[in-house]
Amino acid sequence: MRIDRVLLRTLRLRLREPFRTSGGETHDRTVLLCHLEGEGVEGLGECVAGEAPHYSAETVETAVWVLERYLAPAVLGRDFGRAEELGPVLARAARGHPMAKAAIEMAAWDAEARSRGESLASLLGGAGASVPAGVSLGIRADTAELLDRIDGHVAEGYRRIKLKIEPGRDVAVLDAVRSRYPDVPLTVDANTAYTTDDMDLLVGMDRYGLEYVEQPFGADELVAHAALGERMTTPVCLDESIGSPGRCRDALALGACGVVNIKPGRVGGHGPARAIHDLCQEAGIPVWCGGMLESGVGRAHNVALASLPNMTLPGDVSASRRYWERDIVVPPFELAADGTVTVPGGPGIGVELDEDFVRSIEVDRLDLH
Ligand code: OSB
Ligand code: MG
Fold first, then answer.
1. Which residues contact 286 (CB under 8 A, 6 or more apart)?
2. pLDDT tens figures, 90-137
3. Under 8 Å CB-to-CB from 143, ≥6 apart: which residues?
4. Catalytic residue list contains 101
5. In the prediction, which pLDDT does 129 show?
6. Is 88 strand, coil or helix?
7. Which of 119, 121, 149, 227 has the fewest beta carbons under 10 Å from its own?
8. Helix spans in 128-211 (H)
9. Quick one: pLDDT at residue 335?
10. What are the Cα distances from residue 33, in Å, to 6, 11, 89?
11. Which of 36, 163, 122 is nearest to 305 (CA)?
12. Nearest 5 degrees, angle CA 287-CA 226-CA 276?
């Protein structure tokens, strides 16, 4: 496929309720869609960068800037046999900016799958018609309110509950949740909020029977995570630390994690995400697909990736209604009674944009050709 057009559309989509992590709070999601077109083929991707540089250095604005100046020019007018060939071209065009690169790279995977009349899940090597879903809950000042939310999500059938934590909002919250739900599959995610001074507190979380503790320390701190893993029986899960297949190899060599959260946006797209999946599989490390409060477009990509064979743990691939009053795709994603989300079987990502709604919430567009 020769890429003739890169269309970037910025949308503003309000979350049903604000989502707070140890890094900051999100009320409205700025959704950046990336359409690729060429030779009668189309592909659609979503950039998962945040509104503010709280999860990583990237933001929607840095993504638009690098896409316009460096990434789109590197792929426009070029012919690609396979979506996998974009990764090296984008790597030469700019250092870093994995979320911006992933928006183009993932759109190319959708385009390739559509042009073959195949689902993206099948093109990626996925199997299985559905994937187990968990739900990630933001930090709340009011524990009673959090317990209410958990009640609702457990009743809906979610397969595990993930709690965002930070120093001061951790063990007391876990005490409250565990006394109400002694057995529910439970995890915590610190988004790098702790330091090695907090080792004893973290090791003490073994008493809650968590599935894993996600990213307690800084993204660069592989050795500290390995040391924590030595002291805890609960597995350490890495998210922010795993920026590339190479970094994943290092983490595995150091014994820094027992579980890995794979987000295609964080690592530059489906190609590197799949490489990380395979490295972990060879090492006997289970993985799951994380989320970045995506609209239905990014969600469709994540659900396809989550169908790979070593994605054995429930992912943050929750139903559309957990985030939005109205999603931008049809059909929206729903949670089945058994706590799974169906992997779309149609060509490419297998969902279509609700174009009227998208137009009504579009705040900017950039047409590059
Ligand atoms: O660390 O997994 C994370 C949302 C924004 C930024 C980082 C994270 C998250 C989530 C939400 O946990 C997962 C979801 O999309 O449901
Ligand atoms: Mg995380």
1. 259, 260, 280, 310, 312, 313
2. 999 999 999 999 999 999 999 999 999 999 999 999 988 999 999 999
3. 172, 173, 176
4. no
5. 94
6. helix
7. 149
8. 143-156, 171-180, 199-203
9. 98
10. 10, 8, 20
11. 122
12. 30
The mean predicted confidence, pLDDT, of the chain is 97
Q: Which residues line the pocket of ligand 1, CB cutoff 6 A?
A: 21, 55, 136, 189, 191, 239, 290-293, 316, 318
Mutation pick for ligand 1 pocket among 159, 162, 313, 316 (CB with most ligand atoms within 8 Å): 316
DSSP three-state, residue 344: coil
d(CA 177, CA 154): 12
pTM: 0.97
Active site residue 162: no
Cβ atoms < 10 Å from Cβ of 158:
24
- CB atoms near residue 65 (< 10 Å): 14
Which residues, including other chains, have CB under 8 Å from residue 33's CB and lie 6 or more apart? 8, 9, 10, 11, 44, 45, 46, 47, 295, 297, 358
Look up tokens 């690592």; give the residue: 267
Predicted pLDDT at 230: 98
Of the residues 22, 29, 237, 293, which should be mutated to test ligand 1's pocket, given the most ligand atoms within 8 Å of the CB? 293
Distance of CA 305 to the CA centre of its chain: 10
Determine which one of 20, 164, 266, 277 is catalytic. 164
Which parts of 221-307 fold into alpha helices (H)? Answer: 222-231, 245-254, 264-267, 270-283, 296-305
Catalytic residue among 29, 97, 263, 270: 263
Look up residue 307 and give its two tokens.
């169908």
* Residue 205 CB-half CA count within 13 A: 31
CB burial readout 342-363, b (16+ within 10 A) else e = ebbeebbbbbebbeebbeebee
Q: Ligand 1, atom 1: nearest CA belongs to which residue? A: 191
Q: Which residue has the tokens 């008493």?
A: 207
